[in-house]
Amino acid sequence: MSYTVPEPKLFACTQSQDLGQKIAEAYGAELGNVIFSRYSDGEFQPSYEESIRGARIFVIGSTHPGSDNLMEMLLMLDAAKRASARHITAVIPYFGWARQDRKDKPRVPIAAKLIAKMLEAAGATRIITMDLHADQIQGFFEKPVDHLFASTLFLPYLKKLNLANLTIASPDMGGSKRAYAYSKALESDVVICYKQRAKANVISHMELIGDVANKNVVLVDDMVDTAGTLARAADLMLDRGALSVRAITTHGLLSGNAYEKIEKSGLQELIVTDSIPIRKESDKVKVLSCSELFADVMHRVHHNTSISSKFVL
Fold this sequence. Notes:
The chain is α/β, with parallel strands linked by helices.
């Protein structure tokens, strides 16, 4: 007697409804019905409007600030646990609060570790995420973590551009490993920007390590927040003789006056994924969808097949 694996159920937090819908369509399923009741003071309560007892469920939601996005994910996980779901996978395209992954000075939290423990306590039995700010954050979890690379989206795009004299650049020393991985895949040179910060989101000094004269440069990073680093790096490289400067960043936070900085900078284009909904359209900002990547991995996870082909870098 053959046994058919029941199909999983997919749900999305409100901040990731559009991406959740795209993932569901790519998976060949429909998003499950969740109702959010909200009180006048801002408190909210999610309610699954269908049975999930004994089911594998995927809860899709990025946890970028404000804190309601994280809280929504935690409440969704807790509700699923209390409704007797069998497997509860938190699909977190952008794992927020990850920049606080260590104590870089006395008397500060390690927020990434705290949030990992909160997700597990809430009921997550597995995590699927993409381009963590630091790879070692996977070690903060006791549950399985599938850490996907957006390079599976960016590399084909870069190859189609067919840029002559391509050079990959890292906007800071911390991203050098990522830059070297891209350069190896594209058989290109590498340059590194060295920067010093006066405080968070404020650069006091930037210098370039390497030659960009007569090169088409592509900056690679895991996220873009205020865009100050990318804008300054692009202008510095053009001053040093670069033919063009593009940037690929997985997570487009684009807070504050980021769009204005990008528009005024020498960046030819900024390519991001839709892990976070972008605030507004811009001729310089191109969005590549990560929906098919997540849908494919979720299908492989559910059917217990290998996902190693998704780790390009």
